[in-house]
Specification:
Elements lengths: L1 H6 L36 E6 L8 E2 L3 E7 L5 E7 L5 E7 L19 E2 L4 E5 L3 E5 L5 E6 L14 E3 L2 E6 L6 E6 L5 E6 L11 E3 L7 E6 L2 E6 L5 E6 L10 E2 L3 E6 L15 H8 L7 E2 L6 H5 L1 H4 L6 E2 L1 H12 L3 E6 L4 E2 L5 E5 L10 E3 L2 E6 L3 E5 L6 E6 L12 E3 L2 E5 L4 E6 L5 E7 L9 E3 L2 E5 L3 E5 L3
Parallel strand pairs: 17-23
Antiparallel strand pairs: 1-35, 2-3, 3-4, 4-5, 6-7, 7-8, 8-9, 10-11, 11-12, 12-13, 14-15, 15-16, 16-17, 18-19, 19-22, 20-21, 22-24, 25-26, 26-27, 27-28, 29-30, 30-31, 31-32, 33-34, 34-35
């Protein structure tokens, strides 16, 4: 990862952790000397009680920013002192609505991003806000409501003075750029051929070219100009719902996508809308009502097919249904760059077995890592897609929402059940320690400096060696 990171802007250096999963979403840190053994009563430097939230903490030189929600339904942005964990301020965000959420999601799932001084946050039930280092509100920008039955999950990203936010939903999807100091819109591009998604974008700086931002979404990967929002290149071949954030090396981007009904062998060839209308559209209104459809599977899954929720299936609904039934899950290695449609030209390899649902992949020291629910951990050769080792993480056979991270020759993996596994990194990885907490963990760990930060449902811990 390091060669690519050196091509990007200064805030993306591996010594920083300013956004979701740190430097360009990689999950890789240059931290060293972190303890293998830690827990509520071992190697804890400090612990700060917090309201719940799935977002991970992000860091400036002296401060920590995160989002949360409380039992009264209030949304919070919280700032802590990095040295001792003391809460410096907390600010309530407006909550004009309470949108539908998946049971595994939360009202405070997207992580904050910081430019080293100010914080920027996104909430499903409001939109974007920015706070100064002392908690003064700099600007606010209402967005939504969003037609996403699972709630939003993608985190904001900074590229220089540009704040980027992807908002993919069943309808009305868009990608927008704002000036970080004013919240003023720079550009907005509509994404009508995209349904719900949760993946945070990553930045790409080609040699001699303009800075780009790569967005995984339904069915395709798209690279946009950071300056203008223009589509520069794109490629098809993704599944219908993207949750993990991709990782990159100098030449390739590794995109993971798993969605229900799209494992290998589950694909179906669905007839075009025009053909279906001829036989099913009894009232000849150019749309399909539920009572006109003889297929019980479609009727049963109505809420997932009627994307705009208007009670009938139109041409877009049906095309998205066709695309969804043809989509295939996979971890795909795409060659970076190009111009225009790169479908059929950019795929280096594809792996379709034992795929995680939510956790992002990790690329560290020449090895790709995946962690799947049930504690199935896999190492893969990024050059070929060959599995190097696959085994269960004994002692942590749990559900996983947090993504793996790496530092100092170690990989850290946190389960929902409160187990944090420390592995010796490598093709033939080894479990060194399974640490246990008496609380759930949804947030991705942060190895930074000489400390390891773990957010549980009720607290943020800083661990280190005495």
């Amino acid at each position: 990862m390091v060669p690519l990171l050196l091509l990007l802007a200064a805030p993306l250096l591996a010594a920083d952790w300013t956004q979701f999963r740190g430097p360009n979403g990689s999950g890789v840190s240059d931290a060293k000397g972190l303890p293998d053994e830690f827990g509520p009563s071992k190697n804890a430097i400090w612990k700060t009680a917090l309201p719940p939230g799935h977002s991970m903490p992000v860091f400036s030189e002296t401060r920590i920013f995160l989002t949360a929600y409380d039992a009264d339904g209030k949304l919070w942005t919280i700032c802590l002192n990095r040295e001792d964990g003391k809460v410096l301020w907390r600010r309530e965000a407006p909550r004009p609505r309470n949108q539908e959420l998946h049971k595994a999601n939360s009202p405070a799932s997207p992580s904050a991003v910081t430019d080293g001084r100010n914080a920027y946050v996104f909430f499903t039930d409001f939109g974007l806000l920015s706070y100064g280092p002392d908690g003064e509100e700099r600007w606010r920008l209402p967005l939504g409501p969003f037609n996403n039955p699972f709630g939003m999950g993608a985190s904001p990203v900074l590229a220089g003075d540009t704040l980027l936010q992807i908002c993919d939903s069943e309808s009305g999807s868009f990608f927008a750029a704002f000036h970080k100091d004013t919240g003023k819109l720079k550009w907005r591009v509509e994404r009508p051929d995209v349904a719900r998604g949760f993946s945070t974008p990553v930045l790409y700086q080609p040699n001699g070219g303009e800075l780009q931002v790569i967005v995984p979404g339904s069915y395709r990967l798209v690279s946009y100009s950071v300056a203008t929002g223009e589509r520069i290149w794109w490629t098809s071949g993704l599944t219908w719902q993207l949750k993990p954030t991709p990782v990159m090396d100098r030449d390739r981007i590794y995109v993971l996508g798993w969605a229900g009904g799209s494992d290998t062998g589950q694909q179906e060839d669905i007839a075009p809308f025009e053909d279906v209308l001829k036989t099913w559209d009894a009232n000849k209104d150019g749309a399909l009502a539920k009572e006109e459809i003889p297929d019980p599977k479609i009727v049963k899954d109505w809420s997932s097919v009627d994307l705009d929720r208007n009670g009938v299936l139109g041409a877009r609904d049906w095309q998205m249904f066709r695309d969804r039934r043809a989509a295939q899950n996979g971890l795909t290695a795409f060659r970076l760059g190009g111009k225009g449609d790169m479908t059929g030209k950019s795929v280096a390899w594809r792996y379709t077995k034992s795929l995680p649902n939510v956790p992002s992949p990790l690329l560290y020291d020449g090895v790709l890592y995946l962690v799947k629910e049930g504690g199935l951990f896999t190492s893969i050769d990024p050059a070929t897609g060959e599995v190097l080792k696959q085994a269960r993480l004994q002692g942590a056979l749990d559900q996983y929402f947090a993504s793996p991270v790496a530092a100092g020759g170690r990989v850290y993996v946190a389960s929902q059940g409160g187990h944090v596994v420390v592995l010796k990194a490598g093709a033939q990885w080894e479990v060194l320690q399974v640490n246990s907490f008496d609380d759930e963990i949804h947030s991705t760990p942060v190895p930074l400096g000489n400390r390891l930060y773990i957010r549980t449902r009720s607290a943020l811990y800083a661990f280190g060696t005495p």
